[in-house]
Design a protein that fits this description.
By secondary structure, the chain is an alpha+beta fold. The protein is built from 6 helices and 17 strands. The protein has an 8-stranded antiparallel β-barrel.
Length: 278
């Protein structure tokens, strides 16, 4: 049985979700919204196409709405009518348990099995964030109160909108968990060359190169990401896309203690090992 058929018949349909896969046959009941990019310093949204290789389908090949995300939250909360058959209480507990050895730096306050943990004044919230070219998705749910919040957008500015939504909900007395990484002060770096190189994690690779005559660093990958990097103390960096107005990524370098040169780069929940020093 194909991956899409398994998802549709054993998960999505039982949750009341009419699936819309980004590859394969189109859905007769649903259409995909047009994705948009907003460039820095501009207020005009420009339509963009999706760059989504077939191998990425299990991670980002399914389109949906905020209502669909709430259905997933209700599954994990045990309040959906199909929860007992799809994910019993023992399995829900296992999926929501923190995995201590999993480092979620730059993404969340902790990892569970497929879910992230986000700190809050009333305890951790669970959920996940996701982005594609010109679109974003955010989900949070709180086991103790049974509260769930979801947002989907069709623009790169959706990450900024999510932060505004979380702040607004806090003002209304809903302490939604979110990850706001501590970013140290900007560092005065005279030896930025020790970070330059190609970093790999499986088939995913990142390239760090000098920019503006070597005065700054620029990050790129094989999927269209181009971002200017700002170095901070403690080897932390922020990377802001040059082609889209969205929240910056936060990552860090891990040095080789014998040389002081960067050996790993942590970004987006991945640790990429230095493959080639440039």
């Amino acid at each position: 049985m194909k991956y899409q058929a398994v998802m549709e018949n054993f998960l999505l349909r039982p949750l009341g979700i009419d699936p819309l896969f980004l590859s394969g046959a189109a859905s007769a009941a649903r259409t995909l919204g047009t994705c948009h990019v907003v460039q820095p310093g501009q207020r005009t949204a420009r339509p963009v196409g999706l760059f989504l290789p077939a191998s990425w389908a299990p991670a980002s090949g399914l389109a949906g709405s905020a209502e669909d995300l709430i259905a997933f939250a209700r599954l994990h909360l045990g309040t959906h009518s199909g929860s007992g058959a799809l994910l019993d209480e023992k399995q829900r507990t296992e999926m929501c348990a923190r995995v201590p050895a999993a480092d979620a730096f730059g993404m969340a306050d902790g990892w569970c099995l497929g879910l992230a943990r986000y700190g809050s004044s009333d305890g951790d919230w669970l959920g996940h964030d996701g982005t594609v070219d010109g679109g974003t998705a955010h989900l949070r749910f709180h086991q103790q109160s049974g509260t769930a919040v979801a947002l989907t957008t069709n623009a790169t500015t959706g990450t900024l909108m999510w932060a505004d939504l979380v702040d607004a909900l806090h003002e209304l007395g809903v302490p939604v968990g979110d990850y706001r990484p501590h970013v140290p002060a900007t560092a005065a770096v005279s030896d930025a060359d020790r970070f330059v190189g190609d970093y790999r994690n499986g088939d995913t690779y990142f390239s760090v190169r000098g920019h503006d005559n070597g005065s700054r660093l620029r990050l790129s990958d094989g999927a269209g990401l181009i971002a200017d990097m700002t170095l901070h103390d403690e080897l932390v960096f922020t990377a802001r896309r040059v082609d889209a107005d969205e929240a910056p990524y936060t990552g860090r370098f891990v040095p080789d203690p014998s040389t002081g040169r960067a050996a790993l780069m942590q970004l987006g929940g991945r640790s990429a090992r230095l493959a080639t020093a440039a």
